[in-house]
Amino acid sequence: MFSKIHHIAIICSDYARSKEFYVKVLELKILREVYREERQSFKLDLAINDHYQIELFSFDQVPARPSQPEAAGLRHLAFEVEDLDVVINNLASKGVVTEPVRIDEFTGKRFTFFADPDGLPLELYER
Q: What pTM does this model have?
């Protein structure tokens, strides 16, 4: 029935701050940025390895996430990485703090978490 996940949509509280984080810190590629006048909202389409993956939206007065990460709904967004240590060091050089590395008890793979500017839990999962 489904062939793949098409994209993930994220609503941010400070568009400029989140755009800087996802583009400069996480190094995602901008595919398109539009301002939707009728909604007074930006929409930024971002790519990972040239594949359209994330939509970043701005809206006025968005409510805060109720808890982290066990709120109802999307728990976190995970990025697959080749070398966890390299990515952690890259993020650390940009001021991003990650949690201690853990081992997935079922797969034996290494992973860690960090947060975007709005506190959205993001995961790095080693291939």
A: 0.84
Q: Which tens digit of pLDDT belongs to each residue from 38-61?
A: 888 999 999 999 899 999 999 888
What are the structural domains of the chain?
1-61 (3.10.180.10), 74-127 (3.10.180.10)
Smallest Cα–Cα separation from 81: which of 54, 57, 120, 113? 113
Nearest-angstrom CA–CA distance, 17 and 7:
21
pLDDT of residue 4: 79
Burial state string for 65-88 with b = 16 or more CB within 10 A and e = fewer than 16: eeeeeeeeeeeeeeeebeebeebb
